[in-house]
């Protein structure tokens, strides 16, 4: 019975050791998964920061393009104002005669050409604005996706915190289980020592009782022999009675000794029963610890399932981040294309501004020519009027050629 109890205790001890090793490995696996989750969360934060930076850069480029658009509009307004002023000057000069009408025609042609260029610029501006609107909508979608990614990261962080709390609880429970196991081991050692001492004492008492019984049997045989001798030797009755009295006293002493040994044996049996009861209680405690360890293993399995689900969510988040990165790269390429278009538009604007300056200079020169011709016409008209007021035959002929030249 004792050997079977010891073997059962050894089996339970080995089972506790194996489960403790399994719990340690699971705790290490949880720690590694926690580190991986932290690294992935940090990577997601870095990607989110990059997306925010790219979004800010897109907004700045959009503002820059809007400012350039406003500059283009302002320049176009200035060109329209200059053209309106030139047209008004041309209309005012038209009243001066046919020469002014002939000079107005190039101004109208120039105005039409500039208007056509303005129309083309407006068309391109509308196209650029459409592309800017598309970029803005894509940036808004990226912002929404970034917000969703941040929300998922927050959920992952919460799950990670829960897993960390569960891992800490499992570690604390494992530590308590180890302490309880050490206490049980100590109690087992104490009980084993007490049991060994009790068994030794029982063996000694059993040997003493056996010796006493053998001695009593020998004395009883001697008594029987003496009784037969008394029957045979009636003459030696007095001596035998003395001897018998001595033998009876010795028997009484041996009987008292046997009773004492029996009492000690009963006490030892009671101690042995107490040790057995304590050993059974220890076995019950070990069984309860085994049950708690099974519950802890089930909780750790649930934690591992939660971490597996968390890893699946993390992979989905990585896929979404990769798609967002692809969209950002596409938007970057579109922005570069728009920058190239904007550079071409800026170059065309510079060319138009240069042409406008040239046309303005030409128109100013023609206006000066018109004014000079107008002054000449006025002078000629005044001379004609004066010549008509004071007619002279020799002065009328030269006046015809200037009029013809003017016409």
From TrEMBL:
The residues the entry assigns to the signal sequence are: none
Q: Where are the transmembrane segments?
A: 101-119
**Keywords in UniProt for this one?**
Membrane, Transmembrane, Transmembrane helix
Instruction: State where composition is biased (Polar residues).
Output: 155-167, 183-198, 372-384
- Disordered: annotated segments: 1-74, 148-198, 216-236, 356-407
Q: Which domain of life is it from?
A: Bacteria
Tell me the protein's name.
Uncharacterized protein
């Amino acid at each position: 019975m004792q050997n079977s109890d010891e073997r059962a205790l050894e089996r339970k001890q080995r089972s506790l050791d194996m489960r403790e090793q399994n719990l340690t490995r699971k705790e290490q696996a949880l720690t590694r998964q926690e580190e991986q989750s932290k690294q992935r969360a940090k990577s997601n934060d870095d990607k989110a920061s990059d997306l925010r930076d790219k979004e800010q850069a897109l907004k700045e480029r959009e503002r820059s393009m809007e400012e350039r658009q406003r500059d283009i509009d302002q320049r176009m307004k200035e060109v329209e104002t200059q053209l309106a002023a030139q047209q008004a000057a041309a209309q005012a000069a038209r009243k001066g005669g046919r020469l002014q009408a002939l000079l107005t025609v190039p101004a109208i042609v120039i105005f039409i050409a500039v208007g056509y260029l303005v129309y083309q610029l407006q068309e391109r501006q509308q196209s650029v604005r459409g592309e800017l609107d598309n970029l803005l909508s894509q940036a808004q979608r990226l912002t929404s996706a970034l917000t969703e990614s941040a929300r998922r990261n927050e959920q992952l962080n919460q799950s990670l915190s829960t897993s960390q709390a569960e891992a800490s609880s499992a570690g604390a429970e494992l530590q308590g289980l180890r302490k309880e196991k050490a206490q049980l081991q100590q109690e087992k050692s104490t009980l084993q020592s007490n049991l060994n001492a009790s068994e030794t004492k029982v063996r000694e008492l059993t040997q003493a009782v056996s010796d006493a019984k053998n001695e009593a049997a020998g004395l009883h045989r001697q008594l029987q022999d003496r009784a037969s001798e008394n029957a045979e030797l009636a003459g030696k009755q007095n001596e035998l009675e003395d001897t018998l009295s001595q033998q009876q006293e010795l028997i009484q002493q041996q009987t008292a000794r046997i009773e004492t040994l029996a009492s000690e044996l009963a006490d030892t049996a009671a101690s042995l029963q107490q040790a057995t009861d304590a050993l059974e209680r220890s076995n019950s405690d070990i069984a309860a610890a085994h049950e708690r360890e099974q519950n802890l293993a089930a909780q750790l399995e649930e934690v591992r399932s939660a971490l597996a689900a968390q890893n699946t969510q993390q992979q989905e988040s990585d896929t979404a981040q990769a798609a967002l990165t692809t969209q950002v790269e596409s938007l970057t390429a579109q922005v570069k294309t728009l920058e190239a278009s904007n550079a071409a538009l800026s170059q065309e604007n510079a060319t138009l501004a240069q042409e406008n300056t040239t046309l303005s200079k030409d128109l100013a020169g023609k206006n000066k020519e018109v004014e000079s011709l107008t002054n000449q016409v006025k002078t000629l008209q005044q001379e004609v009027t004066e010549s008509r007021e004071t007619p002279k035959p020799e002065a009328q002929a030269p006046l015809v050629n200037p009029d013809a030249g003017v016409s």
